[in-house]
Every structure is written in structure tokens, then in C-alpha cells.
Design brief:
The complex is a heterodimer of chains A (433) and B (174). Helices cover 32% and strands 20% of the residues of chain A. Chain A has 433 residues and is an alpha/beta fold. Chain A has two domains: 267 residues, Aconitase, domain 3 (2-Layer Sandwich); 139 residues, Aconitase, domain 3 (2-Layer Sandwich). In chain A, the strands form six sheets. A five-stranded parallel β-sheet of chain A has the order 5-4-3-6-7. In chain A, helix 2 crosses helix 3 and helix 9 packs across helix 10. Chain A is globular, with a radius of gyration of 21 Å. The N and C termini of chain A lie far apart (46 Å). By secondary structure, chain B is of the alpha/beta class. Chain B has one domain: Aconitase, domain 4 (Alpha-Beta Barrel). Helix content of chain B is 29%, strand content 19%. Chain B contains seven helices and seven strands. Chain B has a seven-stranded mixed β-sheet with strand order 4-3-2-1-5-6-7, with helices on both faces. Chain B starts with 5 loop residues before the first strand and ends with a helix. In chain B, 50% of the residues are buried. The chains are: A alpha/beta (433), B alpha/beta (174). Chains A and B meet through strand 1, helix 2, helix 3 and helix 5 of A and helix 4, helix 6 and helix 7 of B. The structure holds iron/sulfur cluster (SF4). The site of iron/sulfur cluster (SF4) has 13 residues of chain A, from helix 4 and helix 11.
């Protein structure tokens, strides 16, 4: 029988198979940030094992709270920084060069088709957009990854999500993934890899595919994954040009990591994109989704555009298209956090930052910031945030706060209206303008 | 090896997430011990008062999809520093379950019908649990009532419990 993408990656990375279904695999990269890594570092030090398996395969960034907001976050940064220097980790991104982990690591070319990656961060599933197996893990798995370059997983089962049809204007990858999570439920993909395929995925940019894979974990999935194609090669070309004589040669190599036509899936879900409209979450769970049109008019206090889900250039461009020449509602405050310095810089060049500022947005440095309620836009008790992030749990952006997840387009239009509103790019009647 | 016996805390809700177990605002702590007062601080559960209801418990019994959300191992640690080394539920989020065994703790699944019976029989009563890891049996006791519930964990999970976690295991084998 044929194999899925994840099965092929596992089969090419096997180290040990100690207990039936448990596969210990070799890691191509271990990603680190300042929230979950310091405890692993301290533990390694206290065990007298302050080493790393391969400094060139470890990438580290300070991104969650940066610049440090207090002594404790400063200490987290300090532990990571000193460790990176001590261990000779060249790819360490400190303030001035840092950005949200799941945006900056792909941008630097650290993710390749067929790679195995772990990080102490649940949204590591984002990197599956490149045809990699990338999984969020806890600090102990991270610690062993740092020390030994291996991690243990159950052999991967996959769910195939086939997205066909055409996306109506004003409907984006974020709306698609919210609809998919609505179908699967918050644990519909637990212990499984979600393989995204179909015409719509083929047409998507790498940025959009990352948005899709980013939220696999919100359905419980270990990883989201897209087959590598010419879009993947184009994105990576600057980093791989010296490895291959041509893009075609790179693609034919990467084709090793596409699924066989007779591969087994635990479940196959079909989505007709043509029937989708912009989506929004309404409760404290990411599977509580409904069309934006059912929520229109609902009051919000803050709009947040950013994060590893939707803080990329493509997202900022879409929001700017809606905000251009307009100002946000006087009853609202709005924050945008470009996800990386490169995105920030390009957004400056394209005049996007000016559009945000003229509209009345606060523009922050690249950081996770408000996304996890630790800095840069924490909600007060009872406040509501329209957010392009990925998680709407109770208290996520501040104790007693409510988060409505949505696309950058919906968030921008909501900022202008002061209440939840569909973007002008989308019209109900004809589906699209 | 850790202890898996003691007083039971019943949390009768599904989808209890890691932000409820330990909110992100405490992730700036770099010692496990510092998490101790904040366990389940944001739990949405009618009648639940973390400052009164948690201590002294050693075992948590809950429902489906326990520990969903972030990968933070601070969630198992917050339990561990409160002397809770065992969570029994209908199902778990993958990362949370792996984190538990990686710390030499246990996350054990029981069928929903069995959990229904345990909730009906014991919730609201002072309940003690004894874990027999050799026979794979939980013994629940409250006054005169006693129930023996068989459970199973995988060979790998057992090896992790015996090695007091994944670092010890991996260091020996790889
Ligand atoms: S942007 Fe939000 S979801 Fe993404 S890594 Fe940062 S905190 Fe996590």
C-alpha cells in the first residue's frame, strides 16, 4: 500500500522502534524560543549535560515577549542568549533581528520538504506547509531533542482535507481553516497529521499554506502538511539554488515527499471552497465558528493584526487594502505587529505601515505580543478583541477577555466599523464583488 | 518513580485547556515550584474554587480532550509541584499526554461509561485512589464503597514512568 507524506518522512528518519507503534526519529532541526527553552537549558545544566547535539541544527529566537517587559522576561531572554553563545548556535535572533518564530524560521530558509522539526511550541505545525513533519512538543521532548537530536512519536496517521472549487473574493486561508476546524472539532485530529490538498491549496501562496497548517493544532492535529510543489521551490530557491542545477531538479527531488495515490487516510474530508464565506469564532473554543455575517454588529474593544497565523506581508497587504485612506472607529483601539523585521521593512517600503498609522493603528515591533496576553495589548476583564491570531481560549489575551478569531480582511473592516463586519471585498449575495 | 496514590479531585468538564491549567501570564517563571499557587486558576467550572478545592489532592479525574491547547509543559509541572502525578480522563491532547509521561507522570485513559460511573459514585465524596502498576488496576475508595478499575498504558509510557521521564530514558538509549 502507498504512503502518506508523513509516513514517507518517518520512514526516512527512523532511529529506533522500541515499543511497537513508537518511532524514535532523527531530527533535522530543533527550534527554540525564550518561553519554553530556558527550563530545558536549566535542567540540562543541573544534570551536568549542558551540550547540544548539533549547533547548526538548532535555531533560536526571542519572540514572545520582546523587548523584555520585566525582570522575569529579561531573565528568560538572558538564559537563552547566553546558552546560544555558549553552545555556538549561530542562528540566534535577538532583539532588532527577531520575529515570531513560525514566521522568521521559514523566512530564513530553515524549513525544507522532508524535514523533521520539533519546537516547544504548539504552532510548530505551521512548518508542515513546506512538506515537512513539524510538531509542537513540551520542554522535556525539546530537551532531549537539543541533547540527542531525536524525538519519539506514534507512527503518523493522517486525515486528508481536500479543498476544491475556487475561493470567493474576500475569503482567505484563515476562513478555510476556521471552517475546517469547525467541521473536525477541537480534538477531531488528535494524534493525527492533517494533509491539506486540492485545487485551492495548489493555488495558495506559501504564506496562505502556513496559515492553513498553523491551526492544525486547534483541531488537535500533530502537524498540518502540504505536498511540496513549484510554489515551495520558488519560495526556497534563494536558499537552495546552490544545491540543485535547476528548480525542476529541486522539485523532482522534493517529490519524494508527496503522498502516493493509494495511501491510507483515517478520514477524508472534502471542502468546496466556492461555498465558503468569511468565518469568525464566537466562544472560547476554536471550533465554535460561524459566518461573519451572523456576527455583524457585535461590539469589539480592540483589533489585533499579527501573529504566526496572520502577521505576514500578504496579510498586511490585504488589511492595508481595506484601511487605505480611512480611519478606525473612535470607539476602538487597533494594533498591528508585523511578524518579522523583513516583513516590517517590506511593509515600510510598500507604504503599508503608513496606511496603518494614518488609519490610527499602533504599530509594534515584531513579536507575539498580544497573541498570548503577555505584552503589547493585553485585554482588561470583559473586553473583546477581534484578532487574526489562532487561539480564543478563555483568558488567552488577558483574564476575562473574549477573543474572536478572523482573517486580516475581516479584522481591518472591523477596526473601521468598531463592530464585527465583513470586509468590502466580500458580498453575501453574489459571493464576491 | 513517582507516587500515583491519594485523594481524588473531580473536574467534570471536557476540553480543559492548558491556558486554564496554567495561564500564559505565569509562563515567565523559570522554576517549576513558582507555578504552585496558580494551578487551574482560570478553570471555567461552576462551583470550582482553586484556592480551596485543589489541596490536598493527588489525582485528577476529568473528561474528554484534557490538556488541549499549548505545548507548555508548565501544565504537568503545575500539577507535579502540587503533588498531583496522575490525571485520568476519557482522552487527552497529544502533547499534554506525552509531556506527562515525559516527566515520569501518568495520563491514563478510561472509557466514558466507566468515567460516568466514577463521577456518579464518587464525586462530592472524599475519595481515595490507589494505583497498582503491577496489576494495572486503580482502586477507588470512599467510606464503604470500593471499585477496582483496570487500566492499560503502553509499554513505552510504562518505561518512561519507570525511568522517571524521557530524559533519563533517552540518555540511556541514544
Ligand atoms: S504568535 Fe501567538 S500562537 Fe504564534 S507562536 Fe507567538 S504566541 Fe504562539
Amino acid at each position: 500500500m502507498g504512503k502518506t507524506i508523513a509516513e514517507k518522512i518517518f520512514d526516512s528518519h527512523g532511529v529506533d522502534n522500541p515499543f511497537g507503534d513508537i518511532h524514535v526519529i532523527r531530527l533535522d532541526a530543533v527550534f527554540c524560543h525564550e518561553i519554553t527553552t530556558p527550563v530545558a537549558i536549566n535542567d540540562l545544566v543541573s544534570r551536568g549535560m549542558d551540550r547540544v547535539f548539533d549547533p547548526s541544527k538548532i535555531k533560536a529566537v526571542i519572540d514572545h515577549v520582546t523587548p523584555a517587559k520585566d525582570s522575569k522576561t529579561a531573565m528568560q531572554g538572558k538564559i537563552l542568549r547566553e546558552w546560544a553563545i555558549r553552545q555556538g548556535i549561530v542562528d540566534f535572533f535577538d532583539i532588532g533581528k527577531n520575529g515570531v518564530c513560525h514566521a522568521i524560521f521559514p523566512e530564513k530558509g530553515f524549513v525544507r520538504p522532508g524535514y523533521t522539526i520539533i519546537m516547544g511550541d504548539s504552532h510548530t505545525c505551521t512548518h508542515g506547509a513546506f512538506g515537512a513533519f513539524a510538531a509542537g512538543v513540551g520542554t522535556t521532548d525539546l530537551e532531549v531533542g537539543i541533547l540527542k537530536g531525536v524525538c519519539a512519536f506514534h507512527y503518523p496517521h493522517s486525515i486528508k482535507v481536500v479543498i476544491d472549487g475556487e475561493l470567493p473574493q474576500g475569503v482567505f486561508a484563515k476562513d478555510v481553516i476556521l471552517a475546517v476546524i469547525g467541521k473536525l472539532g477541537v480534538n477531531g485530529a488528535t494524534n493525527k497529521v492533517i494533509e491539506f490538498t486540492g485545487h485551492v491549496v495548489d493555488q495558495m501562496s506559501m504564506e496562505a499554506r502556513m496559515t492553513l497548517c498553523n491551526m492544525a493544532i486547534e483541531a488537535g492535529g500533530t502537524c498540518g502538511i502540504c505536498a511540496p510543489d513549484m510554489t515551495t521551490v520558488d519560495y526556497l530557491w534563494a536558499f537552495i539554488a546552490s544545491d540543485y542545477p535547476s528548480k525542476e531538479a529541486a522539485l523532482s527531488d522534493y517529490r519524494r515527499f508527496t503522498a502516493d495515490s493509494d495511501a491510507h487516510y483515517d478520514q477524508v474530508i472534502h471542502v468546496d471552497a466556492s461555498t465558503l464565506s468569511p468565518m469568525v469564532t464566537f466562544g472560547y473554543k476554536p471550533d465554535q465558528v460561524k459566518p461573519v455575517s451572523d456576527m455583524e454588529g457585535e461590539k469589539v474593544d480592540q483589533v489585533y493584526i499579527g501573529s504566526c497565523t496572520n502577521g505576514r506581508l500578504e496579510d498586511l497587504r490585504i488589511a492595508a487594502k481595506i484601511l487605505k485612506g480611512k480611519t478606525i472607529s473612535p470607539n476602538i483601539r487597533a494594533i498591528v505587529s508585523p511578524a518579522t523585521p523583513e516583513i516590517f521593512s517590506k511593509a515600510l517600503d510598500e507604504g503599508i505601515i503608513k496606511i496603518f498609522m494614518d488609519a490610527g493603528f499602533c504599530v509594534t515591533n515584531p513579536t507575539c505580543g498580544a497573541c498570548l496576553g503577555m505584552s503589547n495589548g493585553v485585554l482588561a476583564d470583559g473586553e473583546v478583541c477581534a484578532s487574526t491570531t489562532n487561539r480564543n481560549f478563555n483568558g488567552r489575551m488577558g483574564k476575562g477577555g473574549m477573543v474572536h478569531l478572523m482573517s486580516p480582511a475581516t479584522a481591518a473592516e472591523t477596526a473601521l466599523a468598531g463592530v464585527i463586519k465583513n470586509s468590502f471585498l466580500f458580498t453575501e449575495a453574489g459571493g464576491a464583488k | 518513580m513517582k507516587q500515583f496514590n491519594g485523594k481524588v479531585l473531580f473536574l467534570d468538564r471536557s476540553d480543559i485547556n492548558t491556558d486554564e491549567i496554567i495561564p500564559a501570564r505565569y509562563l515567565t517563571e523559570i522554576s517549576k515550584e513558582a507555578l504552585k499557587p496558580f494551578l487551574l486558576e482560570d478553570l471555567e467550572l461552576a462551583g470550582f474554587n482553586p484556592s480551596k478545592d485543589i489541596l490536598p489532592s493527588n489525582v485528577v479525574i476529568s473528561r474528554a480532550n484534557f490538556g488541549c491547547g499549548s505545548s507548555r509543559e508548565h501544565a504537568p509541572w503545575a500539577f507535579e509541584v502540587n503533588d498531583i502525578n496522575l490525571v485520568v480522563a476519557e482522552s487527552f491532547a497529544r502533547i499534554f499526554k506525552q509531556n506527562m509521561f515525559n516527566c515520569g507522570m501518568m495520563a491514563v485513559e478510561l472509557q466514558s461509561a466507566i468515567l460516568d460511573d466514577l463521577f456518579t459514585t464518587f464525586m462530592g465524596k472524599e475519595t481515595l485512589l490507589e494505583t497498582d502498576l503491577k496489576k494495572n488496576v486503580f482502586v477507588f475508595k470512599s467510606g464503604e464503597i470500593c471499585k477496582e478499575i483496570p487500566f492499560s498504558i503502553s509499554g513505552f509510557d510504562r518505561a518512561l514512568v519507570e525511568a522517571d521521564g524521557w530524559v533519563g530514558y533517552a540518555d540511556k538509549h541514544y
